[in-house]
Every structure is written in structure tokens, then in C-alpha cells.
């Protein structure tokens, strides 16, 4: 099953992207039932231009859906939510620059920090210094630390890496190749893959490649020379296409297991179906059409609202779900603290240990704690190949 087993909705065309740093029509208060005390101001720093603008645009859509849902349900502590989207261009430098500019000129209650780990890692020290509660869908393990003002909604890279090795082990492979881009997230995931493979007695030959490369045939050929039984691929954005095209160009029919970072890509519009022959994806429950998560009421509420705003959903559901959940985290923190003060919300969120304590949440049951600022997903139940 190359791609059909993975995504709830993978359409053939992608969402448009924008370089409007003000967020265009998405900025401002959504119609809803918030009170007169507000607004509760959110800032989202996303890659709205550059190589991964389509991902940033998907993130923006999901976040706006979350904001709209909260306002429909009465806002945050009776305050309407207003959100402003600014463009990071997918780079750490611009992410830091626009964050500093916005925080110096605006009074924000909550920040959504980037679509990639490179952006989030760069912004994190500023958010700590300014004591602004924030959220990210980025997943590099370096972001997992407490106490913190930055909370995650995704699964950590170490769990992504551990899960894909579990899939390799279950398939009975003893010798595998791997290709990972040189990004913050991918390097963190590869570290986990190396450790899990060693623990499982699996021989691993891994290469790290330029995430902006347009041809990886040479690097893929070197992996083929090692005669692996299977190939692990990781790549978020255009590099994923380049990897699959290199394998197809070589006519190499080695079985591929893509990790969940690889699996959420917009494959249907980026590569032909032949490039997906022999490709399996180790995906999370939120990406599977028939999982208990996606059949649940909270997920269906989210999906209905998301499709109403963007009928064509080119990425795996994890991309949308992790970002939709960030505004929900803000509401849970404020309600738990009965305050919109950054430190009060931070301390309250550390006590939100169960998903049932976050209204509208449908991801991991075990959420935060005094020593864990990311949801705690079980390798044995949350992933499926």
C-alpha cells in the first residue's frame, strides 16, 4: 500500500500560498461568541513564502479553523481570538526577525512558532525571555525541555524514528539503507533511528543529503551499492520528491518504508504513481481513515470545518491536526489558569496531563507534565505501516 493506506484526504492539487506577512483575509477576529473584554491576541510565524510555502499555507488554514472554532464556542475566557500570520520564509533568521519585530510592537497572549524545527529552535529563546506562552508543531527532540513557554502538539522526532525502526523490524529486515535531509528535525530523527536499529541488531547505512538538492541519484546509487534489504526515507517538503525520483530513475525496486515525516507530504501532485511503487508509509493514527482517532467525534468536527475552508487537502492529516490543536492548547491553558498571563498559563498547562482536559483535542491521551512539554505517544499503538 503506497499511499492509500496513509492519509485521510490526499487530493491532487495543493493549497495556494501567500507572502502577505499580515495574513491577508485570515487575520482578525472570526465571527463568534467571544465577549467584550478581548481580544485574546495570537501570532503565527509560518513559512508563507519560499520552498515550503505550501506547507505553511496548510498550517495557516488549520490554525484559522481552530481559531474560528474557539470563537464559535465563546472565545477564550470570554474574549474573542484575533490572530495575525507573519512570514518566516521557512528560515530561522527571518523567523527570529519577524518574531522580535512583532513582540516589540504588539501585545500578544500566545505565539505559534513555525512549521519546522529550524524555525522553532531559533525562536524558542526569545519566547522564553519574553515569557510568552507558545506552541509549535515542530518535533525535534531539542525542543523537549521544561520548564518552558513553548509546548508541542506533534510527536517528538525520537518517537518517529523509533516507530519506523519498529516497522522495519516487524518486516524482518536485517540490513537497511536510509536517506535523511540535513535539517534539524531529520537529524534528530536519524539519531533515534540509529539507536533503535543498533538495539534491534539491524545493520544501518545512512546518508544525509542537502534538503535543497534537485537530484539525489548519485547518493541513492551509493546506498544501492550497499545492497540493503529495504530503504528508510525521511523528508519533509520538496526533498521527499527528489528522493523518490532518484530511486525511480535508477530503476531500483528496493522496498521503501517512509517515516511519518515523509508520509505527510503532498505526493499525489509531486510525483507520478510509478515513483510510489513498493513504498510503504509508517503513519500515525491521525492519518489513517479507519482509526479510532479519526472515527471520533472531535476529529470529525475538525475535519468538517477544515474541508469547509479548504476542500482539497493535499497533506497528511497530521500537518493539519497538529496546527489546529495549537489554539486549543491556548484555550486550555487560559481556562486552567483562569488568566491570560503568560507565566500563569505556562504553569497551568504543565498540569494538563490528559487529552480530555483540552476541549476539542483528539491526539494523544497523555499530554503534558512537569517534565514533558510534548504529547506522549505510544510506539506500539500510535503508528501503523
State the gist of this model.
The chain has helices at residues 53-72, 92-105, 117-130, 157-171, 184-200, 217-225, 238-250, 260-263, 267-270, 297-309, 317-337, 342-349, 379-382, and strands at residues 28-29, 35-46, 79-87, 110-113, 134-136, 150-152, 175-181, 203-209, 230-233, 256-258, 279-281, 283-284, 383-384. With 385 residues, the protein is an alpha/beta fold.
Labels describing this entry:
385 residues, alpha/beta, six-stranded mixed sheet, five-stranded parallel sheet, globular, disordered N terminus
Show the helix and strand layout.
Layout lengths: L27 E2 L5 E12 L6 H20 L6 E9 L4 H14 L4 E4 L3 H14 L3 E3 L13 E3 L4 H15 L3 E7 L2 H17 L2 E7 L7 H9 L4 E4 L4 H13 L5 E3 L1 H4 L3 H4 L8 E3 L1 E2 L12 H13 L7 H21 L4 H8 L29 H4 E2 L1
Parallel strand pairs: 2-3, 2-4, 4-5, 5-6, 7-8, 7-9, 9-10, 10-11
Antiparallel strand pairs: 1-3, 12-13
Helix pairs in contact: 1-10, 1-11, 2-3, 4-5, 6-7, 11-12
Amino acid at each position: 500500500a503506497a499511499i492509500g493506506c496513509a492519509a485521510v484526504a490526499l487530493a491532487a492539487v495543493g493549497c495556494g500560498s501567500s507572502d502577505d506577512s499580515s495574513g491577508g483575509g485570515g487575520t482578525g477576529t472570526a465571527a463568534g461568541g467571544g465577549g467584550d473584554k478581548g481580544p485574546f491576541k495570537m501570532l503565527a510565524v509560518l513559512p508563507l513564502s519560499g520552498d515550503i510555502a505550501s506547507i505553511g499555507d496548510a498550517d495557516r488554514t488549520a490554525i484559522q479553523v481552530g481559531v474560528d472554532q474557539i470563537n464559535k464556542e465563546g472565545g477564550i475566557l470570554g474574549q474573542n481570538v484575533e490572530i495575525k500570520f507573519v512570514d518566516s520564509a521557512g528560515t530561522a533568521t527571518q523567523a527570529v526577525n519577524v518574531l522580535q519585530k512583532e513582540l516589540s510592537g504588539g501585545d500578544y497572549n500566545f505565539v505559534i512558532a513555525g512549521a519546522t524545527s529550524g524555525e522553532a529552535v531559533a525562536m524558542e529563546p526569545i519566547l522564553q525571555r519574553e515569557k510568552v506562552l507558545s506552541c509549535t508543531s515542530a518535533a525535534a527532540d531539542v525542543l523537549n525541555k521544561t520548564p518552558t513557554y513553548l509546548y508541542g502538539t506533534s510527536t517528538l522526532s525520537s518517537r518517529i524514528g523509533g516507530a519506523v525502526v519498529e516497522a522495519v523490524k516487524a518486516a524482518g529486515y536485517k540490513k537497511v539503507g536510509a536517506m535523511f535531509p540535513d535539517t534539524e528535525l531529520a537529524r534528530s530523527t536519524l539519531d533515534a533511528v540509529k539507536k533503535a536499529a543498533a538495539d534491534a541488531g539491524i545493520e544501518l547505512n545512512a546518508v544525509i543529503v542537502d534538503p535543497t538538492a534537485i537530484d539525489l541519484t548519485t547518493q541513492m546509487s551509493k546506498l544501492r551499492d550497499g545492497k540493503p534489504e529495504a530503504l528508510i526515507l525521511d523528508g519533509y517538503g520538496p526533498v521527499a520528491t527528489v528522493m523518490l525520483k532518484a530511486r525511480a530513475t535508477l530503476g531500483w525496486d528496493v522496498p521503501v518504508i517512509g517515516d511519518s515525516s515523509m508520509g505527510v507530504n503532498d505526493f499525489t501532485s509531486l510525483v507520478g504513481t510509478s515513483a510510489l511503487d513498493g513504498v510503504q508509509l509508517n503513519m500515525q493514527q491521525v492519518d489513517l481513515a479507519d482509526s479510532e482517532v479519526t472515527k471520533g467525534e472531535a476529529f470529525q468536527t475538525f475535519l468538517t470545518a477544515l474541508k469547509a475552508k479548504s476542500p482539497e487537502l493535499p497533506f497528511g492529516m497530521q500537518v493539519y491536526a497538529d496546527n489546529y490543536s495549537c489554539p486549543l492548547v491556548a484555550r486550555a491553558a487560559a481556562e486552567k489558569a483562569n488568566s491570560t498571563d503568560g507565566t500563569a498559563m505556562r504553569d497551568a498547562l504543565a498540569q494538563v496531563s490528559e487529552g480530555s482536559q483540552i476541549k476539542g483535542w483528539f491526539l494523544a491521551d497523555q499530554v503534558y507534565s512537569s517534565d514533558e512539554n510534548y504529547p506522549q505517544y505510544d510506539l506500539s499503538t500510535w503508528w501503523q505501516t
